[in-house]
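TL;DR need structure tokens for one chain.
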Amino acid sequence: MTKREHVCGHTDVPLSEVLAALKASGAEDFETAHPIPAAVNHSMAFHAHERERVFLDDWICIGRADEMAAPGDYLTHQVAGVPVLIVRQNDNSLESFVNACAHRFACVVSERKGNARRFVCPYHAWTYDLSGALIRAPYMEMKEGFDVSDHRLRRIHTEVWEGFVYVSLATHPKDLHEVLEPFRANVVGRYDMSCYRTVMRETMVWDANWKNLIENFTESYHVPMAHKKTFAKHKKPLEEYICGEDSLHYGYHRASQQAETGKGAAHPKNSRLDGEWRRMMVDFCIFPCHLVTVMPDFLWYISVQPDGVGRFTATWGVAIPPEVLEDVVPEEYDRWLNDLRDYMNVANDEDKLLVEALFKGTSSTLLPKGTLHPIERNLWQFTRYLAGKCCPMDHI
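>> reply
TL;DR here they are.
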């Protein structure tokens, strides 16, 4: 161990060393693969590098389309430190903008969500319509040649896939629908996730690296041991988990529960699913940071954003199929929703212990080589994605 490693751990490891370790890890076959190199979750240099190569280049989920159902409905979000505003237009399309005024870049909208006919910057009252066009700039007639049509909110690429809204800060992002089409056509398209109705949207901040949550969510090896109060009650045998095909854009695994009725199974009025899919759960990650559990009667999504090397913010929500919601008596809806929120908070608390422990444990420079369980293949797929984005290899 060098003196630098002893004093600083992984925090000050040079970028070149982290990329070399990540490249080697990404080149391994799954059968001999090891966990993702610890330094990628702790190196300050790599944190800055992945911000440019990953978060400023790829598609990031900000929520669900039904959260903005009516014209003027909006959400705000952060992507790699860039404030984003997403708005439902009068023609029912969705548009996204950098949430910064075209004058001197003050944040225009501070609320997390709401509805508006127009957006007024609190600084100098520059006013924008839903399309981001500037429609009023007080006293700017004093500036010779000033034309409101020359100034507007900066647009961001926006796509909706299976009910989820994604934005990309890249100049020329990849075709999201094209790269996800095999996954949609062969697996999750049958659920029609766009028809699920969002019933809650929450935010949590944990003391760990954002990739630690990706690592935790993309494997279900821990579920029987760590989620005894929640997900383990579905009693899906680990031997029956199936990991999906290898992809540099997504990873997933699935398992069916034994019971054909009750929680985790399709409602009798569900005509979308057949056979074993009426009791099938799919856990998936749309790389880099969109996590989803979908079942015939339930959907849970998380979108993760780094707040530094050792902290992240996760926006999460739950959506329910319409036929299940129809069975909730209106007078009991609030209690039903509170019970569901309590359940999810317990599940998140179960995971928080693991994720923060993973960050703490990997801070050590004295670690065994590690190994992966057969149903942890999605972790290896994520490592390959990250290596491909941050240190491209011809053979990945």
